[in-house]
Give the backbone structure.
Amino acid sequence: MSLFSIQYLSEKEISLLKIMREIGRRVSVEELSLSYRDLLDRYKLDPNGIQAISELLKVKGLLNIYRIKRVILRTTEKGAQNIEGFPEERLIKYLSNTGSSAKIRDLIQIFGEDFVSIALGFAKRRGWIDIKEDTIYLVKKGSLDTHREILKKALYGVDKEEIKVDPDVINEMKRRGLLEELVKEEIILELTDRGYEIASSDLEKRIVTRLTSDLVSTGLWRNYVFKEYNIEAEPPEIYPGIKHFYRDFIEHIKEVMISLGFNEINDEIIIPELWNFDVLFQAQDHPAREIHDSLILDAKPAKLDIYKDLLYIIKEVHERGFDTGSRGWRYSFDFSKSARLILRSQTTAATIKYLYDHRDPPQRVFIIGKVFRRDVIDAKHLPEFHQMDGVIMERDMSLKKLMGVLTQISVALGLGKPIFKPGYFPFTEPSLEGYLKIGDLGYVEIFGSGLFRPEVLRMIGVKHNVGAWGFGVDRLAMAYFKLNDIRDLYTYSLNKLRVMYSASSKIIFG
């Protein structure tokens, strides 16, 4: 068969056709590269170029390419550490050996705060223990043999289809960071009938891309086929560096806020509890201040000498309400807790600090920044996320006006009107929660808001009503881009990033 009767083939394309004919069956690119090195060497074909060459042969109808996606489960480093015993299993074993009960403080001393926090949470969820005040009681013994077997099988990666268990078990271990899910694409090559026919023919002529003086002078040009120019070929796609779509979205929020008369402020992410909790009238024995939510630094306490007067007022308000008409929280205030350094858990810490230094109306400020909490990663939660806090201090400030401003912000962002419902926050009264519809997740809480309590205003020396709110910016972006999973805001997929950037360009820039 003459080479002129088919599309021109390069030497490498001919080599791959002949290799496929010698193998005589379907074969994956990975298997071809690893198991047929001698054959590749004989035909002088680089394994790294197989996929590109196969794509060219597919276009010419000489090769079929099948792409099969497989989901691989692999045990993480953290998962491997749990094979010998999960925290909740070790807790049950300890309780069994020590009389079926234990004090939480004793467990923390023995095992550490992180371990106890995880063990208590999962043991309680499984119905293995009961917690009354500060004591843990064993309800029943339990083990996680199924979980352990999965971790063992997945140590070096296993096809998800081979794991025949309740999907909730897999999902739980993924949320705990014990398993990771990888998508592996297997590329299978197969000669078409035409490809087999060509591979079996005598292909003596080789293709060249340009005519040289040597080929002309020696007459060797007669032994070659010259590659034709494809005048319909498209130029290569070029993807220049661009700003991340989420960063564009945050900049868009800032522009909206500034257009509504707000000024942007900034603050540190490592702060003393004084600003994160105390001045916000959050009691020092509030659960959110313990290991379950706040991230306390192993560092020297902050020096608060310049805030002696403020601390005195805070102490009086917390203990007995001072001169606000409140009864306070009725406990003994601890100055050492105020000085503990934490990763801020709310950007309200920045706005309240600003009001302490700017006590006269009018004031309209906002901050967008990261906050940190001990959250388990799922479709709606991350341990590190963005918040937007804002405050308005004006002489005619009211709850009705606050609701109007929050609706104005939501509408200006293109999200429509939020649904309000009564809520509770330690530092506002009355308090409201705001909800927006997010994809298939339904209505999700986007912000908390309210008027600062008299106790808060007294502590910072402000004599006018202050409306305050905190937006979850990540959830706001989910509503904006119609995402069902918060993790898509930080995806590594270039295809997803290009799609999202295109969406953000259309919405934000018009």
User: Anything to note?
Assistant: The longest strand covers residues 63-75. Confidence is low (pLDDT under 50) at residues 1-7. Residues 246-268+344-509 form a domain with the BirA Bifunctional Protein; domain 2 fold (CATH 3.30.930.10).
